[in-house]
Inverse folding.
């Protein structure tokens, strides 16, 4: 039988016994209480009756007293607990009835209890009359000899005892049941704790050392027992885990040693101080090039494997092993069976308790040595490339500074109306040569930026058909000069505009087309542009030139590399294709090539470009600026190079600006505060105080927070421009200074209206001569377009003089061209011709 069952039965028996005891004791107590309370009631009622009877006797006599007794009897019967009450009056000594509810007055009432009452005269007693028991209280009435008694049936008197006993018994039973329930619950909880404890002990006995008794904050004997079991279990678990960890570590160590010995990575051999190799793993045999048969035959000795120059290192290692029990790993070489040497890393130790036998570990260092050599070579090459890139960038920076003077003065002198045609042509040669040199420098600088990972694209909207026509016109002139045919095939479904970096895309196409023309002696060159929906454009350049051997296809894209048949060709830096491929890759494509020597080459690339909806406008026309409207303005030029200051002064003083010069940033600050210029041209790199610091200090002065500053730098990297703008500059101008760009920035910052030598006009505007501008035939316009792209003002003037012979209606157009050519306005001429070409193409 389970503990809980026994406990419940015991609780039930206790409830029954306790209920019986309560009822027994309650019966005695209630009976005594009822007797005493009934006695008090009877005494009180008897005393009241005695007083009433005495009053009647004294006032009205015996008859009235008898009637009063009958009335009192009636009143008693109406009271609770006195339904069987009998008021009896007996006259002594002859025991005659004065009043009795049943007997008649005068009757003799002979009964033993009457004699007892007469004898005692006052008190309480129990008596039996017939088969009924009564409880009576009695007294005498003086001065007459009457005994008056009041008795009640004991059954009625004790009737309330049963009610009391039932109530007491019920309450006692309920309380005992509640007590039993509480005892049962407590017992259940107690048994649960004992069962939990036993369960935990069983789990621990079965090996579950992590078993714990849930903590119950009851510090009784069972609680202390549970805490003790938990503490004991924790100690056993800790000791067991420590033992298991030690065993696991030992197993892992043994496994590592076993894997090490059996591995094909680290060579392991067992040796003795005499130089013998008793046993080894396959990795060691592979390192030294011997077989296991050689090992078993005793042909392998570790001393014999060691070259003479490493024997001293072996001796030092043996001494270290004898002294400390192990040697520090050291590098050496082994002589392989085939006579070659292999670099290794060796470390060894004696067996425990031995001074002659030990184990050695050998790691083949061949791959590590090769990797280190390759890494050093790569680092050397990268350092050389970085040095080369830095050198190229520095050289391009130094070259741009004198070019600023060359191209700047070419632009200044070009505006002089006193120059004759020969002088204008000479300036054109200087201009074109300087721009060509600038293009080469830009290639070098672009390559340096690409190498440094600092080149960023600048996507803009490109009017694709017009963009391609301009490129085709440029290349067609080069092709015609070599007697080559040139075609530009544009697919009819080409979009009107795309989003891309116009400068880089133009540079790539011109590089590919210029190379095609350069290496083609006869035949033709073609540019084919097709559209691959939804937004991919394919550019393909094909020629019938010398071709390229397949082995050199990748070489031609390497920087500064030229294949054999191109090395003696004039022009180029060897950077064009390398830069072009990098540009195309930055745009998301790649340049591919197919070529056959003696047949020709095809270069192509594809770009995914956003399509620009609607018309995309080209560059606005640029005309000859001669001055500006409004009051004269003072400009401050800050540059440490006198030539650079002179270029800017000569450029801008001709337009009516008053020019002030400063030789460095500190001088610029002083002169700026002295003259309060309207605008400052600030070189970024100067001694004593550079332009960045000077600009920052200017912005701290209240009067110069809004004065425009144009930063000028021979470095055109995006980071330099960002630094200048962050220092407080309003605009950035790279060297050599582009006059048109500079004037555009000045006009924007000072809100100027320029005055022009040649008035700005739409295609419908009239020339200086009377009559509308009528464009000549298409063939003549194409020739003029090519000449404008070349910048040949002499050829344009000659062609313009020829136009009136084709028709008098072309004279206004011819006069306009002549005026622009005389002023050497190449950009204005190009824009004028392109406007008419676009208008004609649209119609």
């Amino acid at each position: 039988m389970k503990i809980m069952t026994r406990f419940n039965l015991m609780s039930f028996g206790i409830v029954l016994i306790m209920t019986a005891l309560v009822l027994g004791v309650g019966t005695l107590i209630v009976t005594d209480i009822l007797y005493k309370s009934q006695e008090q009631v009877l005494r009180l009622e008897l005393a009241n009756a005695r007083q009433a009877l005495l009053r009647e006797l004294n006032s009205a006599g015996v008859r009235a007293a008898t009637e009063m007794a009958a009335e009192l009897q009636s009143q008693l019967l109406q009271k609770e607990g006195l339904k069987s009450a009998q008021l009896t009056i007996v006259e002594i000594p002859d025991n005659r009835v004065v009043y009795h509810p049943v007997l008649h007055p005068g009757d003799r009432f002979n009964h033993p209890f009457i004699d007892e009452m007469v004898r005692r005269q006052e008190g309480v007693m129990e008596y039996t009359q017939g088969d009924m028991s009564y409880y009576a209280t009695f007294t005498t009435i003086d001065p007459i000899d009457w005994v008056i008694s009041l008795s009640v049936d004991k059954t009625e008197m004790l009737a309330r005892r049963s009610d009391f006993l039932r109530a007491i018994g019920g309450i006692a039973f309920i309380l005992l049941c509640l007590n039993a329930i509480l005892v049962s619950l407590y017992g259940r909880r107690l048994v649960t704790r004992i069962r939990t404890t036993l369960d935990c002990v069983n789990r621990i006995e079965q090996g579950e050392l992590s078993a714990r008794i849930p903590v119950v904050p009851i510090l009784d004997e069972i609680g202390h027992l549970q805490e003790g079991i938990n503490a004991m279990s924790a100690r056993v678990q800790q000791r067991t885990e420590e033992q298991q960890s030690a065993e696991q570590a030992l197993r892992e160590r043994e496994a590592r040693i076993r894997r090490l010995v059996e591995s094909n990575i680290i060579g392991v051999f067992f040796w003795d101080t005499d130089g013998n190799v008793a046993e080894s793993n396959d990795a060691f045999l592979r390192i030294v090039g011997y077989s296991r048969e050689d090992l078993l035959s005793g042909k392998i000795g570790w001393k014999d494997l060691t070259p003479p120059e490493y024997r001293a290192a072996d001796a030092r290692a043996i001494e270290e092993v004898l002294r400390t029990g192990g040697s520090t790993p050291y590098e050496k070489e082994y002589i392989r069976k085939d006579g070659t040497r292999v670099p290794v890393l060796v470390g060894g130790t004696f067996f425990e308790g031995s001074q002659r036998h030990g184990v050695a570990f050998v790691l083949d260092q061949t791959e590590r040595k090769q990797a280190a050599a390759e890494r050093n070579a790569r680092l050397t090459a990268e350092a050389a490339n970085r040095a080369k890139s830095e050198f190229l960038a520095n050289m391009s920076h130094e070259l741009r500074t004198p070019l600023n003077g060359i191209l700047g003065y070419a632009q200044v002198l070009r505006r002089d109306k006193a120059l004759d045609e020969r002088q204008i042509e000479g300036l054109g040669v200087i201009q074109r040569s300087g721009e060509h040199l600038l293009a080469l420098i830009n290639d070098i600088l672009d390559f340096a930026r690409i190498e440094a990972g600092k080149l960023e694209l600048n996507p803009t909207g490109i009017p694709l058909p017009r963009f391609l026509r301009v490129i085709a016109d440029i290349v067609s002139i080069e092709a015609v000069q070599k007697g080559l045919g040139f075609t530009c095939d544009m697919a009819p479904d080409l979009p009107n505009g795309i989003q891309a970096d116009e400068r880089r895309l133009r540079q790539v196409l011109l590089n590919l087309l210029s190379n095609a023309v350069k290496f083609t002696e006869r035949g033709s060159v073609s540019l084919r542009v097709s559209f691959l929906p939804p937004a991919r454009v394919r550019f393909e350049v094909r020629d019938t030139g010398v071709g390229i051997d397949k082995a050199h296809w990748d070489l031609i894209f390497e920087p500064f590399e030229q294949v054999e048949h191109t090395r003696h060709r004039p022009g180029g830096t060897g950077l064009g294709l390398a830069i072009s491929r990098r540009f195309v890759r930055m745009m998301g494509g790649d340049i591919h090539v197919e070529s056959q020597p003696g047949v020709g080459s095809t270069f192509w690339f594809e770009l995914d470009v956003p399509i620009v909806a609607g018309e995309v406008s080209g560059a606005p026309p640029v005309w000859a600026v001669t001055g500006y409207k409004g009051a004269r303005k003072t400009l401050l030029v800050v540059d440490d190079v006198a030539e650079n200051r002179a270029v800017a002064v000569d450029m801008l003083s001709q337009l009516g600006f008053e020019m002030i010069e400063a030789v460095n940033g500190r001088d610029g600050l002083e002169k700026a505060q002295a003259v309060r210029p309207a605008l400052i041209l600030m070189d970024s790199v100067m001694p004593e105080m550079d332009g960045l610091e000077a600009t920052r200090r200017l912005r701290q002065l209240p009067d110069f927070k809004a004065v425009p500053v144009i930063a000028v730098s021979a470095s055109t990297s995006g980071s330099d421009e960002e630094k200048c703008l962050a220092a407080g500059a309003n605009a950035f101008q790279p060297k050599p200074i582009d006059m048109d760009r500079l004037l555009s920035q000045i006009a924007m910052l000072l809100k100027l209206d320029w005055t022009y030598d040649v008035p700005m006009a739409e295609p419908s505007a009239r020339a200086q001569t009377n009559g509308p501008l009528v464009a000549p035939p298409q063939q003549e316009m194409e020739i003029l377009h090519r000449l404008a792209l070349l910048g040949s003002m002499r050829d344009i003037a000659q062609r313009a003089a020829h136009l009136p012979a084709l028709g008098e209606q072309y004279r206004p157009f011819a006069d306009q061209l002549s005026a622009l050519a005389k002023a050497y306005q190449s950009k204005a001429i190009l824009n004028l011709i392109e406007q008419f070409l676009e208008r004609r193409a649209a119609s």
Summary: The longest strand covers residues 132-141.
